[in-house]
């Protein structure tokens, strides 16, 4: 069963996932861009998987292309899930 | 070097006979739980499973037509039958519909591409999910010496096999840093049902080793590429061809 989608919950998931891709925890903010964090397309694909497993929201290639910042990703998941 | 997770499962498509059945047995001998996929030869697949079990290995026969497009359903079926994720995928299923290009029909083209190439892509894409999560995976595409080199009468088969090699290299580059390797094995002239009618003295004379290869010799290459020892080998094509490509 998918978890309830709140901004807080999604942010927690994203913040916890990013260090798996080598991101320094102290660099993670809503405003940080994935480019600055050195998070590439493979990392974003894996982040999408983690989100889909947790919330049942699938982010497709087009969606992922639009995401620039950590906040964009969180907002998109919340928007798609509501 | 990372080690294969304990519940890892190997899926071999088209494994009821020939090269596929030898690969299934070789992977089982190496400790993989093996899904023996077949489309029509249930008795053949069951015989492979029995042979594996007789040697103390674990295997299940899995009925699915890989050309139907539902790779996710097949992977789920395998996972449920064998109790773990597919962390080794051997794309072996293939057919030949030979004719010179002038005489080759659209159907002959589509069937060969739709059996030998497209299902390999879909299964690879959909199994990468578990492999990336596990930080361990082995994709092995059974290509051919035909593709990298010409073989008159097989433009469809050559396109599919060359396509597999190109796909192998690119996906290997995409996922290498997640501990997932993607390689191809290119058999030459191997003694199977598919080649039985072609085994003339003239053809055998053109092979530097002067003999046909065996399915077991191809399987040994796959076994290596699927092993922990091959963790740094990715994006390559291993020729098992008695020197045909030398």
Automatic annotation (TrEMBL), chain A:
**The keyword Lipid metabolism belongs to this UniProt entry's keyword annotation:** yes
Output the PANTHER family linked to this UniProt entry. Answer: ACYL CARRIER PROTEIN (PTHR20863), CARRIER DOMAIN-CONTAINING PROTEIN (PTHR20863:SF76)
What name goes with this protein?
Acyl carrier protein
Post-translational modification here is noted as: 4'-phosphopantetheine is transferred from CoA to a specific serine of apo-ACP by AcpS. This modification is essential for activity because fatty acids are bound in thioester linkage to the sulfhydryl of the prosthetic group.
State the compartments where it is located.
Cytoplasm
Instruction: List the gene name.
Output: acpP
| PROSITE patterns, per database record | CARRIER (PS50075)
Keywords of the record, alphabetical order, are: Cytoplasm, Fatty acid biosynthesis, Fatty acid metabolism, Lipid biosynthesis, Lipid metabolism, Phosphopantetheine, Phosphoprotein
Task: State the taxonomy lineage.
Answer: Bacteria, Bacillati, Actinomycetota, Thermoleophilia, Solirubrobacterales
Please name the HAMAP family in this protein's record.
Answer: Acyl_carrier
The function of this protein is: Carrier of the growing fatty acid chain in fatty acid biosynthesis.
Pathway listed: Lipid metabolism; fatty acid biosynthesis
List, alphabetically, the Pfam families matched.
PP-binding
O-(pantetheine 4'-phosphoryl)serine PTM sites in chain numbering: 41
All copies of the Carrier domain together span 4-81
Q: Which family does it belong to?
A: Belongs to the acyl carrier protein (ACP) family.
Checking InterPro entries in the record gives: ACP (IPR003231), ACP-like_sf (IPR036736), PP-bd_ACP (IPR009081)
Q: What is its main location?
A: cytoplasm
From TrEMBL, chain B:
The record's SUPFAM superfamilies line, in alphabetical order, gives: NAD(P)-binding Rossmann-fold domains
Among Pfam families, the record links this protein to:
adh_short_C2 (PF13561)
Q: Where is the Ketoreductase domain?
A: 8-193
Give the enzyme's EC designation: 1.1.1.100
- What keywords would UniProt list here? Oxidoreductase
Enumerate the GO terms in the molecular function aspect.
3-oxoacyl-[acyl-carrier-protein] reductase (NADPH) activity
Q: Which Gene3D superfamilies does the record match to this protein?
A: NAD(P)-binding Rossmann-like Domain (3.40.50.720)
Q: Which domain of life is it from?
A: Bacteria
Q: NCBIfam families under this entry?
A: PRK12826.1-2
Give the protein family: Belongs to the short-chain dehydrogenases/reductases (SDR) family.
Please identify the protein, giving its name as recorded: 3-oxoacyl-ACP reductase FabG
């Amino acid at each position: 069963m998918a978890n309830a989608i709140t901004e807080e919950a999604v942010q927690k998931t994203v913040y916890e996932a990013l260090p798996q891709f080598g991101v320094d925890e102290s660099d993670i903010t809503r405003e940080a861009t994935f480019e600055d964090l050195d998070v590439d397309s493979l990392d974003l694909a894996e982040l999408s998987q983690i989100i889909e497993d947790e919330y049942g929201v699938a982010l497709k290639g087009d969606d992922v292309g639009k995401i620039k910042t950590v906040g964009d990703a969180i907002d998109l998941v919340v928007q798609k899930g509501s | 070097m990372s080690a294969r997770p304990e519940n890892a499962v190997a899926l071999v498509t088209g494994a009821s006979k020939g090269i596929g059945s030898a690969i299934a047995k070789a992977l089982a001998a190496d400790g993989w739980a093996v899904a023996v996929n077949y489309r029509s030869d249930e008795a053949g697949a069951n015989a492979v499973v029995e042979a594996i079990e007789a040697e103390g290995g674990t295997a299940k026969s899995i009925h699915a037509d890989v050309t139907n497009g539902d790779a996710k359903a097949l992977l789920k079926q395998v996972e449920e039958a064998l109790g773990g994720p597919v962390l080794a995928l051997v794309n072996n299923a293939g057919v030949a519909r030979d004719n010179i290009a002038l005489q080759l029909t659209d159907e002959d083209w589509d069937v060969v591409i739709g059996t030998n190439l497209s299902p390999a892509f879909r299964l690879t894409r959909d199994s990468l999910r578990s492999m990336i999560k596990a930080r361990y995976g082995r994709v092995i595409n059974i290509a051919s010496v035909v593709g990298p080199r010409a073989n008159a009468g097989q433009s469809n088969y050559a396109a599919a096999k060359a396509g597999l090699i190109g796909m192998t290299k690119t996906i290997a580059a995409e996922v290498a840093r997640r501990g997932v390797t993607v390689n191809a094995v290119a058999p030459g002239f191997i003694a199977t049902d598919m080649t039985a009618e072609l085994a003339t003295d003239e053809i055998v004379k053109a092979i530097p080793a002067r003999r046909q290869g065996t399915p077991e010799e191809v399987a040994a290459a796959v076994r290596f590429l699927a092993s922990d020892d091959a963790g740094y080998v990715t994006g390559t094509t291993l020729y098992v061809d008695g020197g045909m490509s030398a």
